[in-house]
């Protein structure tokens, strides 16, 4: 008969079923002669992760549609390590967009080197403000979730996983790239749409990571926005042009 060569298995709980969020030890079994079979979840009797057979473009489309299964596949069953790079790139786009708005409001066209240096410093300042706002937003979310569901964030790894999920879910800010390229064509409505889309993605990331209902993630996001706006208010009181 045909022998079974299980896939090299990670520790128990390394993977998750994308349907019911239960822990799984493997995503598929590798039989001889290159025959693969997706593992079946013992809890819901569905494939543990159907997306391992899907094209990355299809997975991306499902993630854009904020499907929980796609989020579980990306967060638990893949090894993606672009969280920091994606976050910095999004912040750079946001900072550049704010910098353009600041330059549009300035009527000074003097090419003097001092003016150029001041404009360059304005970009760095906008990047710092955007970073501070996002950090404040995340801190507000963590405080709310830790206060309401302390059992969900007992270990350091829980905080790290949630942080990675939040960083990945900010991918919607990449939509700022067209606004940077066609800087005269974007509208406040488009920017508001991007903001709402990012918040929806953040909510889905929290829900999937901690296996919560739909209400609590939005509650955490609401307090995150309050915390973020509080920081913006303090910066404005200090005379910063935010």
Which short descriptors sum up this protein?
242 residues, mainly alpha, 2 domains, three-stranded antiparallel β-sheet, two-stranded antiparallel sheet, 5 strands, disordered N terminus, Arv1, transport, endoplasmic reticulum
Q: How much helical structure, as a percent, in the residues?
A: 55-70%
Nearest-integer average pLDDT? 82
Structural classification: mainly alpha
Low-confidence stretches: 1-12
- Biggest sheet descriptor: 3 strands, antiparallel
* Spatial gap, N to C terminus: 70 Å
Sum up the overall morphology in one term. Answer: globular
**How many separate domains?**
2
Number of DSSP-assigned strands: 5
Going across the major beta sheet, what is the strand order? 1-4-5
Number of helices: 8
Content of β-strand: 5-15%
Radius of gyration: 22 Å
Helix/strand order: EEEEEHHHHHHHH
Note down, in words, how this protein is organized:
By secondary structure, the chain is mainly alpha-helical. The protein folds into two domains: 15-76, no CATH class; 81-238, no CATH class. It has helices spanning 56-64, 68-76, 83-105, 113-148, 156-168, 176-181, 188-210, 215-237; strands at residues 4-5, 15-16, 23-24, 28-31, 35-38. The strands form two sheets. A three-stranded antiparallel β-sheet has the order 1-4-5, with no helix packed on it. A two-stranded antiparallel sheet has the order 2-3. α2 crosses α7 (188-210), α4 runs antiparallel to α8 and α5 (156-168) runs antiparallel to α7 (188-210). The protein is globular, with a radius of gyration of 22 Å. Keywords: Endoplasmic reticulum, Lipid metabolism, Lipid transport, Membrane, Transmembrane, Transmembrane helix, Transport. It is a multi-pass membrane protein. It is found in: Endoplasmic reticulum membrane.
């Amino acid at each position: 008969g045909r022998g079974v060569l299980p896939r090299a298995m990670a520790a128990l709980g390394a993977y998750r079923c994308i349907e019911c969020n239960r822990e799984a030890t493997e995503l598929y079994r590798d039989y001889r002669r290159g025959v693969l079979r997706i593992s079946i979840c013992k809890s819901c009797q569905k494939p543990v992760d159907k997306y391992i057979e899907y094209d990355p473009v299809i997975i991306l489309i499902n993630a854009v549609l904020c499907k929980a299964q796609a989020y579980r596949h990306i967060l638990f069953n893949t090894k993606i390590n672009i969280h920091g790079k994606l976050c910095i790139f999004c912040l750079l786009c946001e900072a550049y967009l704010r910098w353009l708005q600041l330059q549009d409001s300035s009527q000074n066209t003097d090419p003097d080197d001092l003016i150029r240096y001041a404009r360059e410093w304005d970009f760095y300042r906008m990047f710092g403000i955007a970073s501070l706002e996002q950090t404040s937003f995340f801190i507000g979310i963590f405080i709310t979730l830790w206060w309401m569901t302390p059992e969900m964030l007992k270990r350091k790894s829980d905080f790290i996983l949630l942080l990675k999920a939040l960083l990945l879910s900010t991918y919607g800010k990449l939509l700022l790239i067209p606004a940077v390229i066609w800087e005269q064509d974007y509208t406040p409505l488009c920017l508001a749409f991007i903001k709402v889309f990012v918040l929806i993605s953040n909510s889905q990331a929290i829900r999937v990571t901690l296996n919560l209902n739909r209400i609590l993630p939005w509650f955490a996001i609401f307090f995150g926005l309050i915390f973020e706006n509080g920081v913006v208010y303090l910066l404005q009181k200090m005379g910063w042009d935010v």
